[in-house]
Amino acid sequence: MLQAIYSTMRGNKTEKAEMKKAIFIYLSAITLVLLSLSNIGYASTFQPTATQKQASTDGEPTLQEWFNQNGYNINVTEDETGIEIFEAGYYKVTILAEIAAYAPMNNLSWYPESTGQLNYIFYGANATGDEAFFLAPEDFGLCLGSPDGFFYTEPYRNDDGEDHALVFVNPNASGYIIAWEDLWKLGDEDFQDFILAALTPVRVKVWYCPRTLNLKSRGRWITALIKIPEGYKAKDVNVSSVMLNGTVQADVRHYKAVDLRCLHLLIVKFNRTALISYVKKSVNGCACKRFTVSLIVTGEFSDGTPFYGRNTIRILCFNNCHAFSHTVRKLQHRFCSCPSGTHATPPRTRRVFRADRRSWRGPALPFPLGKVSKVQRSHP
Predict the structure, then answer these.
(1) Residue 173 pLDDT greater than 70, yes or no
(2) What ranges make up the beta strands (E) of 317-362?
(3) How far from 22 is each of 14, 25, 28, 33, 43, CA to CA, in Å?
(4) d(Cα 262, Cα 323) in Å, to the nearest integer?
(5) Hey, what domains does the chain have and what are their CATH numbers?
(6) What contacts 260, CB < 8 A, 6 or more positions away?
(7) What span, in angstroms and rounded, lies between the C-alpha atoms of 216 and 331?
(8) DSSP for 193-204?
(9) What digits encode the pLDDT tens for the residues 148-159?
(10) End-to-end CA distance of the chain
(11) pLDDT at 374
(12) Helix (H, G, I), strand (E, B) or coil at 297
């Protein structure tokens, strides 16, 4: 055809112009056909995001539709916060929805930002409506595990390099709503495979009595004074949920709730022996006789809202202290006259203990003198 067109171009100028126009139209048509074919191939691999789809092709609601149906005033395209790490505290998490084929196999964990060590919260057996509490002593992230891999709230930790979690501020409670995509490379990008609500804890102030704890103490209680912030009342605290460092539970028989106009105070008691056992395990191998530990009190109100407070307490740790043992050995060597150093005897001195003055006017002794009825002289 092109040869026929070229042969006719040898005619007059009018025919040449018409032939050039015909060639241009012919080539343009071929170009349009090729472009349409390439667009068909591209469209077959393109997947619209959840925010672009008006209706799910498999009958599932989109993330925006799910928010609208369940009373969450959230705009998926505008309200995503971009949060990847959450503040330390005592959190309550609830599974709001699992719309995924992997639901029986998915699991949820939290991990410290510093180490990335996973701590499981939910397993595959957990279902919509299940709740859990966890205490994060430092800033942390969340991780969804699925058969396709582990997907973190920090995208750089994901093997596929994608952001699998959308974080929104919860408009109905204090906290966040996190929506996950559980497929490799974002899959269908619907982000409603696992929807989670995380309630941030209410911060409280706490003081402990006594302020100093001797690990040899035989006392019965450690008392905690918890100041409840405005908007909450001490009587609304579920006392059975109050714990120290997630280990020592408050005694439900010994507590006092004080609710005044300007003060809301909860006074609870913890078993001192249980706390000493916990501290000894935590400071095993201590080489100091005095140090401080941080005690975290956690609990929840009757409506399920968690609270969290932190303060320090001083610890006296003589039994495990190398420095103290060394001091004892020096005293034994100083006041012992036998070669083996096993008997503590008074030093050789002429100074006396006078019963009327009740005072020893010699070097300090490593044992009590007791009562005396008359003047006693030391060894000659």
Answers:
(1) yes
(2) 353-354, 359-360
(3) 13, 5, 10, 17, 32
(4) 48
(5) 1-29 (no CATH), 63-200 (2.60.120), 203-316 (2.60.40)
(6) none
(7) 21
(8) SEEEEEEPPEE-
(9) 999 999 999 999
(10) 138
(11) 42
(12) strand
Q: Which helix (H) or strand (E) holds 315?
A: strand 306-316
168/186 Cα distance (integer angstroms): 18
Question: What integer best gives the mean pLDDT of the chain?
Answer: 77
Angle at 95 between CA 238 and CA 48, to 5 degrees: 150
Coil, strand or helix at 330: helix
Contact between residue 101 and residue 60 where contact means Cβ atoms under 8 Å apart: no
pLDDT in tens, 260-313: 888 899 999 999 999 988 888 877 756 567 788 889 999 999 988 899 999 999
CA dihedral 100, 104, 105, 108 (to 10 degrees): 80
Which residue's structure tokens are 């469209």? Answer: 43
pTM above 0.70, yes or no: no
Tokens 């149906």, residue located: 69
**Maximum CA pair distance of the chain?**
151
* Residue 203 near residue 229, CB atoms below 8 Å: yes
Among the listed residues 195, 197, 163, 172, the one whose alpha carbon sits nearest the alpha carbon of residue 83 = 163
User: Do residues 247 and 276 lie in contact, with contact meaning Cβ atoms separated by under 8 Å?
Assistant: no
* Pairing label, strands 194-199, 175-180: antiparallel
Cα 191 versus chain centre, distance: 23
- pLDDT, position 357: 44
Which residues, 6 or more positions from 38, have their beta carbon under 8 angstroms from its beta carbon? Answer: none
H helices then E strands: how many in the chain? 5, 20
